[in-house]
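Long-time lurker. I teach an intro course on protein structure, and each term I like to show students one example going from raw sequence to a predicted 3D structure in token notation. This year I'd like something fresh instead of my usual example. Would anyone be willing to generate the tokens for the chain below so I can use it in lecture? Attribution to the forum is fine with me.
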Amino acid sequence: MASSVATSSLISLDTIRAAAARIAGVAVRTPLVRAPFAGVAGPGMGREIWLKAESLQPIGSFKLRGAANRILQLAPDEIARGVITFSSGNHAQGVAYAAREVGAKAVIVMPSNAPAIKRAATLALGAEIVEVGVASTERLAKSDELVAKYGYVVIPPYDDEAVIAGQGTCGLEIVEELPDVDLVLSPVSGGGLLSGVAAAVRQLRPSAMVVGVEPELAGDAAESFRKGEIVTWPAELTSRTIADGLRTQSVGVRNFAHIQAFVDRIITVSVAEIRAAMRAVAAATRLVPEPSGAVTTAALLFHAHELPEYRKAVAIVSGGNVAPEMLADVLLER
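-- Reply from a regular --
Happy to contribute to a lecture. Here you go:
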């Protein structure tokens, strides 16, 4: 399926800047943390790598940006109806957190294989969880059913202009803090973060390159980019990856339009590379990335031959909500 979104409807810088002002009291402006990975970047290498620490958001993920931008624009009658979304965990927490800020009920349709740590955090924020199977289609169907029954307002996880603009504030901050950035790497699943970041970065700094990164076990976005049309992977394939935040079966239509307009390439990384990148990030910066948040570092460490030349690169650590047992297993692995 080719993207049907007109170029004229792509998110503008003014829209992203308005989102930044709107969410300033809810999401935080996260730091860029220098990562001197030995043999890759640092003194004497002629290259610098910085990590955009979205793991330091109040919910441990960038997802708060888009959810807050969407929810903070709701009318009073919409807030009274309550909100609903479908998510494996990080967007769920973003919606629950932002809904709590405005006093709205939040209902989350969550797959049965969502990490327990994300499920518990979502419940702690006061949301109601409705569990379904692992397929994205099951989540969407249940959400539609509940909207029809109760009138909830849907807060989409990625294929939504307000959500894209909210995620774009991450790219806005990157260029404001590092104006001469050459390369920005973003994880890609449904495409909310990549599309928003790419729109902000390329409109502020047209010479910068933007690269999407995803697990090879859930490589639908890379295939879509290569073919020039949206490709859907079955849930039994995308659910194989340890990067639970990147298991979406296809990119969104609006997201793909932005990706085609602003993204230079999408590459994939292996499970072993993701795990090694998690260890490298923790050792070099003391940040704790979840697997989804480590894919960009994996690309820098293991796929330099697929990346453009750069002097200053920023890898977005999209989240840090990793199960303690997985983190221990990864850190202790030889």
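Some talking points for your students: The chain has a mean pLDDT of 93. The radius of gyration is 18 Å.
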